[in-house]
Amino acid sequence: MNRVITIGREFGSGGRSIAKMVGEKLGIPVYDSELLAKIAEESGFAKEYVADCGENFSFDRLIARSLSGIGSYSQATAEDHLWTMQRKVILELAEKGSCIIVGRCADYILRDKADCLRVFIYADMKKRAEHIVKAYGESDVSPEKRLRDKDKRRSAFYTYHTDMTWGAPHNYHICLDSGTLGMEKCAELICSLY
Amino acid sequence: MNRVITIGREFGSGGRSIAKMVGEKLGIPVYDSELLAKIAEESGFAKEYVADCGENFSFDRLIARSLSGIGSYSQATAEDHLWTMQRKVILELAEKGSCIIVGRCADYILRDKADCLRVFIYADMKKRAEHIVKAYGESDVSPEKRLRDKDKRRSAFYTYHTDMTWGAPHNYHICLDSGTLGMEKCAELICSLY
For chains A and B, what is the number of CB pairs under 8 angstroms? Predict the structure, then answer.
């Protein structure tokens, strides 16, 4: 059976970089932006739509949908369609060979399907704020607000599709504070469990 | 500065055994039942009272206290006194030398005071149920009910004294699923972070 690592991560925790380090050390592919491209291709949605709606809940769309009543049916099915395609691509990748999958509820999607190590990466607000300013630059919105918004949307998306709490330890085999332990050490610990 | 490891753990997750393994590997003392004895000695409370009320919230006493109004003052201060003494003993132990402290909100108590690695150990209900039946035997109450009751009391105690959520990853540097990873592997990972 293929050995798959899923890495859930808070925005700005460096989960993506840790995934890359682990992939290099273990010599197995990492699906992050590559996953986006694949899902976009299979679903016919634009990459930007997949990036935004494939793991972030849209509170605006929820409100729009509620206000417009049954007229919102097509919007609901667009998101359901994306979820179905995303699930299919993730299951296929896990079937194809050992790999690392970043985000997108892969831990939930693969819970019974693969020999899967489920990891969650987090860090405190201060460390994450420094990280996103360095990685994505400043914006009009404070880094703390950007982090809180993203956390809220990822968390709501996860709960909507899985009925579980995003970042709750029981959904994962190991949860690591990258801010204190450092990204290198996190990668090393994950490799030692493979 | 002394290097202290605090190990929070769900009932039946094997956290106590993991602490012992880590203590042996690193050659530093583990304070678990020894901590109980010390707190009992310093506070003048019976060991059984310290064991039960030093990390488990009593919903019965809360109700009794509410019903009896201000007459409950002495009960409130007994628990406050225990908390104060427990805090004092934990701070002194961390001051005295490198060590491992199991449970009793030590992660919170030492959050600014020591060079402290904060660990949380958990496992799924099934694995924990097997563990407590093996360790403590059967009882009239189902193991699942015993686990749920204990989780609820520990969680309420933690929140009451720390204003934080027991077992939420952000309170710890690493959270480990001992049921999947195994106790030996958990001990090894903790040692590698020391």
Answer: 53
**Phi and psi at residue B56, to the nearest 5°:** -125, 130
For the record, the structure tokens of A154 come out as 């990822």
Q: Is B184 within 8 Å of chain A by CB?
A: no
Strands B30-31, B3-9: pairing is: unpaired
Question: What residues of chain A lie within 8 A of the CB of B168, using their CB?
Answer: 168
Nearest CA in chain B to A172: B177
Taking an 8 Å cut-off on Cβ atoms, the answer to whether B173 and A181 are in contact is yes
> Would an 8 Å CB–CB cutoff place A170 in contact with chain B?
yes
Q: What is the pTM of this model?
A: 0.89
Residue of A nearest to B194 (CA): A181
Full strand arrangement of the beta sheet holding B99-102: A30-31, A99-102, A3-9, A115-122, A174-177, B174-177, B115-122, B3-9, B99-102, B30-31
What's the per-residue H, E or C state across A99-113?
EEEECCCHHHHCCCC
Best CA proximity match to B107, nearest among B123, B83, B90: B90
Inter-chain CB proximity A189 and B192 less than 8 Å:
yes
Neighbours of A163 (CB within 10 A): 8
**pLDDT 10s per residue in chain A (194 long)?**
679 999 999 999 999 999 999 999 999 999 988 888 888 888 888 888 888 888 887 777 666 666 665 555 555 677 788 888 889 999 999 999 999 999 999 999 999 876 899 999 999 999 999 999 998 888 889 999 999 999 999 999 999 889 999 999 999 999 999 999 999 999 999 999 98
Q: B30-31 and B99-102: which strand pairing?
A: parallel
**Could you tell me if A98 and A23 are in contact, meaning their C-beta atoms sit under 8 angstroms apart?**
no
Tell me which residue of A3, A1, A5 sits closest to A101, measured CA to CA: A5
